[in-house]
Amino acid sequence: MNRRLNVALCVGLPLVVLLIFGVFHLFSLRFSGGDIYPPYSSLRADPLGTKALLDSLASMPNVTALRWLDPLPRLEAGGRDTTLLVLGTNPYALEFMPRRDFKELEEFMHAGGRVVIAFPSAPKRPPKPLAERLDEEEAAAKQRQRQKDAKQPESKSPPDKQAELRRKKKEAEERLPEEMRRVELKTKWAVALDYLPLSHDETGATRPVEARRVSDDVTQPEKFAIRTALHFRDLGPQWRTNYVRTENKAVPEREVGGPWRTNYVRTGLPVVVERSFGRGTLILCADSYPFSNEALRRDRQPGLLAWFIGANHRVVFDETHLGVNNDPGVAALARRYRLHGFFGALLVLALLFVWKSTSPFVPPHPDDGLDGRGDLVEGKDSASGFVNLLRRGIPAGDVLAVCFAEWKKSFTHAQSHLRPRRERMEQVLQAETARPARERQPVAAYQEISRIYKERK
What we know:
This protein has 457 residues and is α/β, with parallel strands linked by helices.
């Protein structure tokens, strides 16, 4: 049995180690691609990620590139000599952002930081969040109900529940702390977002459009391709437009008394704009594609990327806006404090405990049989075991006296009719005890005592 256990352990332990290594390798392959992270994350190595840009910047001399998983105020040195890349930002999240986030970004820029906010590629207007769509549908349904009730003059129109709902939402917003209240992007930064869908080719694929430079900065490339329907409008006077998406806008005209004709006017829709905040700069880019791994391979724009980053020596890729945060669990704390050896030692101790529990380390007794059964005696019943116990614990000359004493304690209580026979039995026992040890006959004395006990009245 022990040999079988040893063989099982020798074969099973390597298989378990191999299984653990295989599972770890599969997880490593799964995480190395990074496709479990959101698009435009610096943790993704596929075409939708920005890991190639981070690695390229990190390999340059005098440039520090890092990904940031903590709140922005924890960044050392603030925005001094730093460019913050906020890529793949949800446009609906930016349009109504908490006042605290606006404040953190503005403090970063006032300290000299350069913030680049780029939006994901979208060939048409993306759907609104589910909660906002439900609110709009509920409001439209209530508006239709009010119009229907207004057509019935006899019935009283119900109270304006939509106004009551808006009032409650406003009160809930006012109960929030000042830093948590949402502020509209147009109100805070004097810019609004809009969409103009892109066209498609014969195969149904989206056609990219050109963004042309309109600024006087000759260090910027003349043009580059964008793949998004988003553009900016209602820009305040503090904004400067760097690139526009050119579109031919149809304007119907006709001369007096003549037929209508369509004239096309070339208009520009801003897609890259910038403005100053103290000693820093804010740049909004309608498309994150130029930063992606795919763009660095197929349509590389080094001059454009160099202008986005600027002259700063530290480039930070923000991940918190994508929902990738630094959540220090047990594994993260173990890696931080280098507890790999401690947990490895615990694993070795656990394996040794299992081995000790399954395999005896004490060698067998030399008197044991070859079959390893030792003191195991077959063919004996409980009576034989009792006799062996008596032989080991009571001297042979005292067996009859001990048995008689135990019989008196167990069987003579409340049995007065046994008293005369018990006295005769004691006389036989005393006579047997009084003899020399060599002349004693315990078997004959036992038989005589049994005969007296079995006598009838």
